[in-house]
Amino acid sequence: MNPKLIKPLLIGAGVLITLVLIIWGFSKIVKLIKPDDSKDYLKQLEKEAREQDLQQTLSESESETIANSIFTALESYWVEEKIVFDKLAKIQNILDWSKVANAFGIRKISGNWSTSLESGNINEWLQDRLDTEEFDQASAILAKKGINI
Predict the structure, then answer these.
(1) Distance (Å, whole) CA 136 – CA 149
(2) Which one has a higher pLDDT value, 75 or 113?
(3) Phi and psi (nearest 5°) for 92?
(4) Mean per-residue pLDDT for 115-140?
(5) With the CA atoms of 119, 121, 126 and 127 taken in that order, what torsion angle do they form, in degrees rounded to the nearest 10?
(6) How far is CA 59 from CA 22, 47, 55, 74, in A?
(7) Could you tell me if 93 and 147 are in contact, meaning their C-beta atoms sit under 8 angstroms apart?
(8) Which residue has the higher pLDDT, 104 or 50?
(9) Model-level pTM greater than 0.70?
(10) Cα distance between residue 142 and residue 89, in whole Å
């Protein structure tokens, strides 16, 4: 290799690595300052449930099972929307939805494939992983029970 080319190649590689590190660092900083509205969302759901004087129809165990099943269906490389719809159909009211959302919490992706969402609450996962038609169908299932997502 021509010795005159080595120095410009090393400088170019250094600049490229520096830019990648700056972009990566910036993305982490943005995540840190992003407000976590999940707690506010859960408080709002519980407030609405109290105002409607609703009774929970799902046990804590059932709420956790539904949350885990929805996450597993959304996290897989090929989203299993039928499982998501089936689990959403088990939710009877906003209090049930609140308990499932609370059980879901903030989940992080554990696979090694790329998605625009690295972590999020149940709404963020549904919006990110379902296509528009599927998300509309999920929203309709819950809307029939007075739940807006």
Answers:
(1) 10
(2) 75
(3) -100, -25
(4) 90
(5) -80
(6) 47, 19, 11, 23
(7) yes
(8) 104
(9) no
(10) 7
